[in-house]
Amino acid sequence: MNFNTTLAQRVQSRIFEYGSFIFVLFVVSIYFSTSFSTIVSALLGLFWLLSAQFMAFPVTLKKNPVAAWSVLLFLCFILGSCYGSTPFDKAFAMMMKYREFLYIPVLIPFLTAERYRVWAWKAFVIASAVTLLISYLMDVGILDVNNQGDPCLKGRITHSIFISFFAFYCAHKVRDSKRYAKMYLVLLIISLHNLFFIVEGRTGQLIAVSLVLLFGVQRLTKKILLLTVLVMTILLALYLNFSDKASRMREGVANTQVFLQPGHEQTESSMGQRYAFWEYSIKLIAEKPIFGHGTGSFAKEYERIAQSKQPEHWITRNPHNEFLMVGVQLGLLGLLIYLGFLASQYYCAKKLPNREKWIAQGLLLSLIVTSLFNSPFLDHTEGHWFASMIALCFAPFKLNKTYPTNV
How far apart are CA 15 and CA 29, in angstroms? Predict the structure, then answer.
């Protein structure tokens, strides 16, 4: 009996170790293949079960507030599928789109060991660098692997989110890494150039500007921070007024000015449509403010309220705002829990050592900005990426282990 128990424990331990290796593969797969990342995520779930990590699931939730809030939010989507007028199959399909919230507590156990986190961060660096290389090769016409017209694999919004956070990561490595500081400086410069002059993703550009300010608050003195803000303001002004690559950003500014005017009429632009989506989403939340219209209800309810007032091609299944997407479906209750999920990351980040705290804060800011202009957890690639990065950033929370300092 004892021999069988010991053997089972050894098998489970080996399976668990393999699961940690697979997480590294999962990080890389998110950047390059939707289907492969889905397969790898299923493997991670299987290894989580076979290694009996589900037995420690309550402990993970108790010790890690980020994991607890993510599960609570997923439970809200399950509850939301039980009411409203949405057929259950559509509600279930929408609920499964938000399964990334359940990934976070599942992934965290695979990252409790320092060496696995180090490998995962290295995989993140390699995948980001290769993504940049592919983008430049596509821009000069050497590679042709995307029919969307943008020189990137995953679309400009997704690409810009990835690269803006990578630039932030590289900036910290320039300050901290003695051996590879020059390499990270080159990657930082290339990332910023790619964001503003190759792939014009406004979400990523806004994230990059926000992260520059955050980096200044985290690492610079007040005088240097003020100088940084001044230089950044001048560079942005020059970029907006003189660069032919700033057309989308100028369009966004113009649409915002129109939106703020009384009696405004939105233009036929992506930003103008977003503002229209947000207006009607707020009206839907006002109809059922407490519990919302139910999981999977957004598309049907939005069409009901907007079809007589908007052009047909403006009818949407996604308001491009995670706060509103959650609010329409789950009401203020769900919105408060999503805010609690974000607040838990802020709280836990403060408890981490400085280097890990700074990176976690950057990820949180990236998620907040993305949530204002997109629905990251509704989208497959962004949802998987944020779930994996959140697990990686907050897996060390309250562990009595040495934190990685050479990632």
Answer: 20
**Residue 209: CA count within 13 A, CB half-sphere:** 19
C-beta pairs of 311-316 under 8 Å, 24+ apart in sequence = 314/273, 314/276, 314/277, 316/273, 316/277
**Structure-token pair, residue 204:** 């990523």
* pLDDT tens by residue, the chain, 407 residues: 455 557 667 878 888 889 999 999 999 999 999 999 999 999 999 999 998 888 989 999 999 999 999 999 999 999 999 998 899 999 999 999 999 999 999 999 999 899 999 999 999 999 999 999 999 999 998 988 765 678 998 889 999 999 999 999 999 999 998 889 999 999 999 999 999 999 988 999 999 999 999 999 999 999 999 999 999 999 988 888 877 777 767 666 666 655 556 655 555 556 667 888 888 999 999 999 999 999 999 999 998 888 766 666 568 889 999 999 999 999 999 999 999 999 999 999 999 999 999 999 999 999 999 999 999 999 999 999 999 999 999 998 865 443 343 44
Q: Are 399 and 111 in contact (CB under 8 A)?
A: no
Give backbone dihedrals phi and psi of 398, rounded to 5 degrees, phi first.
Answer: 65, 20
pTM of the model: 0.92
Q: How far apart are CA 395 and CA 120, in angstroms?
A: 12
Q: Report whether 302 contacts 292 (CB < 8 A).
A: no
d(CA 322, CA 377): 8
